[in-house]
Design a protein that fits this description.
heterodimer, A: alpha/beta, Aconitase, domain 3, 2 domains, five-stranded parallel β-sheet, 16 helices, 19 strands, 31% helix, B: alpha/beta, Aconitase, domain 4, globular, binds iron/sulfur cluster, 3-isopropylmalate dehydratase activity (chain B), lyase (chain B)
């Protein structure tokens, strides 16, 4: 029987299956960070258990690392969490990219960058955006802290096989429109629940033409569509990205891997539980205006009426969203002033994102009322950007150039948006309070964020794209 | 060991909003602790307290009639957003043993029964039938896990379903790792034999 990519990877990892449909799934890579792991290690200690496969486990510090001076952790609890992770990694024999490591960064940026993320793997992490790694043809999903403990102890997880959803993306983007706009538009069109219970496979000629960075952006936000996992069949783009990365196989092993990985695509005639299609050619730059990622649309579209029939949102939800965001129906996002701009996160904190933003801000100045931050996703991204002089471009334009971490994506470190102020953010969540109490978050692409920083308000970045071929820029090539 | 769940009768707190996300259930400033307990005090913090840390009288958990509630009645897509398990710890630590909702976000739902909290997905009929609770006419109900049924004091009852594995865990108060270690030999075998084809790869 023809199989989907998801089924192939899943079937290779079944340890045992119960009659109730629960599968004990073997995990090839377990990524760990400081926030969701302390209680898991505490649980192991209480029960006198060990980590079954420390060699398949890798830890980093990212969520509450200060990005101005990472070693100056003022928040005592954050400090405690960072120290606890270091201690746990020492005690249980786990590799750790700590604050001094050149490999430190956001967990979903460093996994691929280090070649830990590989096609055909099962990958978990106590963070919902683990779906990012699916861009390499891996089954990757976020887990809770009890599950972190479970994987540490057993290297396995109980899972019910999700249904499969194929999202077929066709067409070619207009200049100034990016993968981020595609995933925001998909979620705006189909809602935050359309992937619930499914693993999404992104396919179609649009996906094949995307860089790994773009693919990761798509998979990263699968969780915002309700799907725990999003994946893309590996191809030459994937292999070129991975070759020679620190933990990627080499030599004869590499050749053997390529042979196995080339099998990892959905068979002709494979059946999905659901299929949706979207042509990306006419998409306009997207901006969210509400308090979940589906409350968004083109920067030109008019915000929905509260009492509109057939609305995807209840009257109450819309009223709450407008009150929180300080917006009203019938207006558009075009020209709405912003006070903060955040370029970074595991959605858009990679080298391609920074190159794009830098190209747009070069020779321009951040508007005087805007505070703009660039936070590279990892030490390696930062280093590469500095080698290319991007840091100078950003700083000359008035951006702050920071150390790697999650930063303003969730404001667990001191990078917060003050109450009532507006932030154009390249992150993935616009929930109430995500970037600070009463902070107003608008999710956008790095290009839209960069343009908003300069203009001081939301603009249509397509008008800024003249002479800039920015849709296809390559990944960092490992040295 | 967790507390075993069988029949539970308790007071209901009503929070019918859709898409209550884990950022609301437990705001991120409280995630930095390294313990598992004590999160109940900060459950729904931003909705429960104002900027000065004073209780907001309009929020349901601050209503006098909600004090001591052990069952939460919620709307659609409860627990969406970040995968933080602290959300369930906070609900549990506050005293909630069961959460009845129109629907749940996946990760949150799974996190519930790992922590001895019963998540009940309400049928359309059950949701309608709980109208007297939402109106505050009735304030208590009974959740019968072995029988998979909810009973109202007015005599009405509604059935629900739960996967057998999840049900067994809640009823036996079983820790997840303990369940899995019964399969240890299979895991050993998987690593030894099945992975031969891939061992060089991973
Ligand atoms: S950047 Fe944001 S979404 Fe990504 S791992 Fe960090 S906190 Fe989570």
């Amino acid at each position: 029987m023809p199989k989907t990519l998801f089924d192939k990877v899943w079937d290779q990892h079944v340890v045992t299956e119960l009659e109730n449909g629960q599968t004990l799934l073997y995990i090839d890579l377990h990524l760990v960070h400081e926030v969701t792991s302390p209680q898991a290690f505490a649980g192991l200690r209480e029960a006198g258990r060990r980590v079954r496969r420390p060699d398949l486990t890798y830890a980093t510090m990212d969520h509450n690392v200060p990005t101005d001076n990472p070693h100056h952790v003022v928040d005592l609890i954050a400090k405690k969490q960072l120290e606890t992770l270091a201690e746990n990694c020492r005690d249980f024999g786990i590799r750790l990219a700590d604050l001094d490591s050149p490999h430190q960064g956001i967990v979903h940026v460093i996994g691929p960058e280090l070649g830990l993320t590989l096609p055909g793997k099962t990958i978990v992490c106590g963070d919902s955006h683990t779906s990012t790694h699916g861009a390499f043809g891996a089954i990757a999903f976020g887990i809770g802290t009890s599950e972190v403990e479970h994987v540490l102890a057993t290297q396995c997880l109980w899972q019910a096989r999700p249904k499969t959803l194929k999202v077929e993306l066709t067409g070619r983007l207009q200049p100034g429109v990016f993968a981020k706009d595609v995933i925001l538009a998909l979620i705006a069109k189909y809602g935050v629940g359309f992937g619930t219970g499914y693993a999404i496979e992104f396919a179609g000629d649009f996906v094949r033409g995307l860089s790994m960075e773009g693919r990761m952006t798509l998979c990263n936000m699968s969780i915002e569509a309700g799907a725990r996992a999003g994946l893309i069949a590996p191809d030459e783009v994937t292999f070129a990205y991975l070759q020679n990365r620190p933990h990627a196989p080499r030599g004869a092993e590499w050749e053997e891997c390529l042979r196995l990985w080339r099998e990892l695509s959905s068979d002709e005639g494979a059946v999905y539980n659901k299929v949706v299609q979207m042509d990306v050619s006419l998409l306009e730059p997207q901006v969210t205006w509400g308090t979940n990622p589906s409350m968004g649309g083109s920067v030109h579209s008019l915000l929905p009426e509260v009492a509109a029939p057939n609305s995807a949102f209840s009257q109450q939800d819309l009223q709450n969203a407008y009150a929180y965001m300080g917006l009203s129906p019938g207006m558009s996002m075009l020209g709405v002033p912003v006070q903060h701009v955040f370029i970074g996160s595991c959605t858009n904190g990679r080298i391609e994102d920074l190159r794009l933003a830098a190209a747009l801000v070069e020779g321009r100045r951040v508007a005087s009322h805007v505070r703009a931050l660039v936070v590279p996703g990892s030490k390696q991204v930062k280093q590469q950007a500095e080698e290319e002089g991007l840091d100078k471009i950003f700083q000359a334009a008035g951006f702050e150039w920071r150390e790697p971490g999650c930063s303003m994506c969730l404001g667990m470190n001191p990078d917060l948006v003050p109450a009532g102020e507006r932030c154009a953010s390249t992150s993935n969540r616009n929930f109430e309070g995500r970037q600070g109490r009463q902070a107003r978050t608008h999710l956008v692409s790095p290009a839209m964020a960069a343009a908003a920083a300069i203009a001081g308000e939301f603009v249509d970045v397509r008008e800024w794209m003249q002479g800039k071929e920015l849709n296809r820029v390559g990944s960092i090539q490992p040295a | 060991m967790l507390e075993a769940f069988n029949q539970h009768r308790g007071k209901v707190a009503v929070l019918p909003n859709a898409n209550v996300d884990t950022d609301q259930i437990i705001p991120k400033q409280f995630l930095k602790r390294i313990e598992k307990s004590g999160f109940g005090d900060v459950l729904f913090y931003d909705w429960r307290y104002d900027e000065k840390g004073q209780p907001r009288p309009e929020f349901v958990l601050n209503h006098p009639e909600s004090q001591g509630a052990s069952i939460l009645l919620a709307g659609d897509n409860f627990g969406c957003g970040s995968s933080r398990e602290h959300a369930v710890w906070a609900l549990r630590d506050y005293g909630f043993r069961a959460i009845l909702a129109r629907s749940f976000a996946d990760i949150f739902y799974n996190n519930c029964f790992k922590n001895g909290v019963l998540p009940v997905v309400l049928s359309e009929e059950a949701w309608d039938g709980l109208e007297p609770i939402r109106q505050g006419v009735l304030r208590e109900l009974e959740v019968d896990l072995p029988g998979e049924v909810i009973r109202l004091p007015d005599g009405k009852s509604f059935s629900f379903t739960l996967a057998a594995h999840a049900k067994m865990m809640l009823m036996e108060g079983l820790d997840d790792v303990g369940v899995t270690l019964r399969h240890q030999q299979k895991i050993d075998r998987y690593e030894l034999y099945h992975r031969v084809a891939y061992q060089r790869v991973y």
